[in-house]
Amino acid sequence: MANKCINPIYSNPDIAGIGIRINFYATILLTALTPENEYTDELLDGIYKNSVINGLGLVITAVVQTMERQLDLYHAIFVMQIIFSLNFVYDYGQRRFIRSNKADFRMKTFIWVQQFTTVVFTVWLLYVWIKDVDFGSQRSCNNLVKYVLFFASVRATATWLRVLFITNLVITACALLFSLSVIVSAYVKRLRTHKYEKLANAATEPSSIQPPTPPSQGQSKRENDIGRTALRYVHFSVL
C-alpha cells in the first residue's frame, strides 16, 4: 500500500491558481497579437516586465516548495510549461531591446533579472528530472502523472522522456550562455559607439575662446581721426 497513490494530487494555488493562469494567458495573447510600432513600444515593454516579475515569483515559489517538500511532480511540470512558454516573451523583449538604441537602466535591470530567473529555473528543473520518480511530496502518485507530447500522452516518469528533458536542459544552458554573451557584446558595442560619438562631437565643436579680431582699416582710420581731434582740443585748451 505504501507504493500506491491513495490520496489524489492536492491543488496548489500558489503555483496553478486562477490568477496565475489568467495572467499567463493574457501575457501570451497580448504578445502574440500586439503589433510592434512606435505606438505600442510602452505596451510591449510593460508586457515584458510583467512576465519577468511573474516568472521570477513562480520560480522562487517552486524552489521554496521543493526545499520544503511541498511540491509534487505534476505542479513541477506545470511550472516548467509556464516558464517554457514565457521564454517566447523573454526572447522577444530582449531582441527589441538589442535592436533599439535606448539606454534604459530599468530595462537593463529587468533583462538581468530575467537571466537570473532562467539560470535558477534551469538548475531547479535539472534537479526535478534527475529525481523524477522520487521527486516531490506525493512520490507514490508520480507514475500517474501524464505528459502530453505531440498529442500523445506518456508517463512523466518514463526514462526516455527524462533523458529527453535533461538533454534539452543542457542545450538550453548552452543557449543561455550564448544569449548572455550576445547581450553583453551588444551593450559593450553600444557603449563604445556612444563614447566615439562624444569624442567626435567634442572634436568638431568650435572652441569657446575666440582669437581677437584685428580691427579693420576703416575702423583704425576712424580711431586715428578721433585721437587727432582730442589732441587738438587739448592744445587749444592749454593755449
TrEMBL record:
UniProt superkingdom: Eukaryota
Keywords: Membrane, Transmembrane, Transmembrane helix
Positions of region (Disordered): 202-223
Keyword Transmembrane helix tagged: yes
Transmembrane regions listed in the UniProt entry: 73-90, 110-130, 163-188
Protein name: Uncharacterized protein
Lineage: Eukaryota, Fungi, Dikarya, Basidiomycota, Agaricomycotina
